[in-house]
Specification:
Structural class of chain B: mainly beta
Order of helices and strands of chain A: EEEEEEEEEEE
Radius of gyration of chain A: 13 Å
Shape of chain B: globular
Radius of gyration of chain B: 13 Å
Number of strands of chain A: 11
Largest interface: A-B, 24 and 21 residues
Number of strands of chain B: 11
Largest sheet of chain B: 7 strands, mixed
Oligomer: heterodimer
Distance between the termini of chain A: 36 Å
Chain lengths: 107, 118
């Protein structure tokens, strides 16, 4: 199975900050990497697919980059509604696997 | 619009089975696989398997192979996930999700809490 490692596991930030979350795969997944946002008590929501493509309806302050084994999710101008947990997920091979999550909370 | 609606919370005793439904609408049911993902309390996301609503073929995680059964009803555009021989560590929120391409979950159900307790 492909292992996905996210860092940091949590971070504190302020409204207006720029936040960067990294995700590393245990082997090359080319660009088969998705990012999801999950708020407490809610289902995950797709933010970024194929490493860098913005899902319809997602604000442009979210962006993704990377290929191979190293990927990044960046949130610019952090908004109050962005405080949540973020997960990366590889779709290069079965089983699908997720990173452990990064919790973003208010400083 | 695409909608994915799951059945309600369940409480089961160890050793019992649970069957969760996932009703879809707003798109071509046979054109997208449905995957199931679970999340234990305070934990991350664990992939369980998928079903192809067109042919009914399935693939399950090795961890759950032998205990999980995914089925579908094309007449009601509903997918089902049954988990047997329940244990306390099966306590989790279970999600179904419509998946496009090889593994991008673009529409999720609201989740179903399954509690396993004696």
């Amino acid at each position: 199975d492909i292992q996905m490692t996210q860092s940091p596991s949590s971070l504190s930030a302020s409204v207006g900050d720029r936040v960067t979350i990294t995700c590393r795969a245990s082997q090359s997944i080319t660009g088969y990497l998705n990012w999801y946002q999950q708020k407490p008590g809610k289902a995950p929501e797709l933010l970024i697919y194929a490493a860098s493509s913005l899902q319809a309806g997602v604000p442009s302050r979210f962006s993704g980059s990377g290929s191979g084994t190293d990927f990044t999710l960046t949130i610019t101008n952090l908004q109050p509604e962005d405080f949540a947990t973020y997960y990366c997920q590889q779709s290069s091979g079965m089983p699908l696997t997720f990173g452990g999550g990064t919790r973003v909370d208010i400083k | 619009q695409v909608q994915v609606v799951q059945s309600g919370a369940e409480v089961k005793k160890p050793g019992a089975s649970v069957k969760v439904s996932c009703k879809t609408s707003g798109y071509s049911f046979i054109s997208y696989y449905i995957h199931w993902v679970r999340q234990a309390p305070g934990q991350g996301l664990e992939w369980m398997g998928w079903i192809n609503p067109n042919k009914g073929d399935t693939r399950y995680s090795q961890k759950l192979e032998g205990r999980v059964i995914m089925t579908r009803d094309t007449t009601t555009t509903t997918v089902y996930m049954e988990l047997t021989s329940l244990r306390s560590d099966d306590t989790a929120v279970y999600y179904c999700a419509r998946v496009r391409g090889v593994g991008t979950a673009d529409s999720w159900g609201q989740g179903t809490l399954v509690t396993v307790s004696s």
